[in-house]
# Entry
Amino acid sequence: MLASTKRSGVGSRGTPKATPPATGQQVREATPPAPPSEVAERGRRRQFTVEYKQRILREVDQALASGEEGEVGALLRREGLYSSHLTTWRKQRERGQRAGLAPRKRGRKPTRNPLSSEVERLQRQNARLENELAKARIVIAVQKKVAALLGNPIPDDPDETEES
# Structure
């Protein structure tokens, strides 16, 4: 009885039913685009410059000298820092390590000699040139034999015989 009261193509409230898209292309066109993601795909470690660290330490010192309560916490929240940053930076400043305030490269230190790549490149170049020299000597030897067969012999170079 319920099925007989419904008309085809009309919903229960008398509104026309939306026909489902027929093809995949129509489905893609009908679906709204996904909202942009606010989460970064991959997080990156923050790196602070020496000037930035020194400026923050000066501001913290001024906030402590002013005596107002909560100034340092407000500064840390505003800059997105942790108190451990201040502790580390103060220790480095006390030791007089301006270079220590600079960000360091993470990971293992390179154990490879920086000149080794240059040495390898020069060795490859030397081997290539020696190979070309051997080919050139073969060509010269063939030219000498052809010249001798034609009756016009080429004299041997005295420098060349000493090297061989």
